[in-house]
Design goal:
Oligomer: single chain
Shape: globular
Number of helices: 11
Order of helices and strands: HHHHHHHHHHH
Structural class: mainly alpha
Helix content: 40-55%
Radius of gyration: 21 Å
CATH architecture: Orthogonal Bundle
């Protein structure tokens, strides 16, 4: 049987539709880990962070997301896939990526409290809402907001994150594989927490539902309890 001429094959081939040049399309690689975007499916929307070790990035302040992309690019955070993806991107494009995900305000899965030890949950609640002055650990809400949804321009929300991801980040701060601009306030806090306290904080945070309005606050409500190199200090 004679082979058909190339021109005939091309004419008979189905039309290939053009790929839309949108940020959603460009960032499909990001959402493959941090959440996909089928319309109407709140559980799998962009940035919901369904997988246990990937964070929910939807709705985080653009300044925070930009700082983290820089940290991956410049080696202050260690995750080879992220470093490879952002290593050759410009500052301006990283800002575009951060702005895109900061505009996504979507639901997130919540860990059930039914199977968590009551004493662990209570310790977690105390650390998150009141801190522990004896250990020089400020309350999480002192920086991340009363609703734990973060604050502009660069303080992230803590609710909506998977427990395993939170545990992993405390470990990364403790061993130095995650760093921020000095003074690195989270590294200092992580070094003062016991492993049981880390478990208590992660359990409480992961089981706290997002408020109806999960947008970050316009600014921290009070001066920060510790100097943090990644966020400007707020004064009254």
């Amino acid at each position: 049987m004679r082979a058909l001429p190339l021109i005939v094959l091309l004419l008979c081939a189905p039309a290939i539709s053009a790929v839309p040049d949108t940020m959603a399309q460009r960032l499909a690689a990001c959402t493959s880990c941090h959440g996909s975007t089928p319309a109407g499916d709140a559980g799998t929307n962009a940035g919901t962070g369904e997988r246990r070790y990937y964070p929910r990035i939807a709705g985080k302040p653009a300044g925070y997301l930009y700082n983290q992309l820089l940290n991956f690019r410049e080696g202050r955070r260690q995750y080879p896939l992220m470093t490879w993806m952002v290593g050759h991107l410009s500052d301006d494009y990283l800002r575009e990526i951060a702005a895109y995900f900061s505009s996504q305000h979507l639901p997130a899965p919540v860990l059930s409290r039914a199977g968590l030890p009551a004493a662990e949950l209570e310790r977690g609640r105390q650390l998150v809402t009141r801190g522990d002055p004896a250990l020089r650990i400020p309350a999480c809400i002192a920086c991340h907001g009363e609703r734990l949804t973060g604050a502009l321009p660069a303080i992230p929300g803590l609710v909506g994150l998977p427990r395993d991801y939170i545990n992993a980040q405390f470990g990364a701060w403790r061993n130095g594989s995650r760093r921020a601009h000095a003074p690195d306030c989270m590294a200092a806090i992580a070094s003062r927490l016991s492993l049981s306290d880390v478990a208590a904080v992660s359990g409480w945070l992961a089981s706290e539902p997002l408020p109806e309005d999960a947008a970050p606050a316009a600014a921290p409500a009070r001066p920060l309890p510790l100097a943090c190199g990644s966020a400007p200090e707020v004064r009254p």
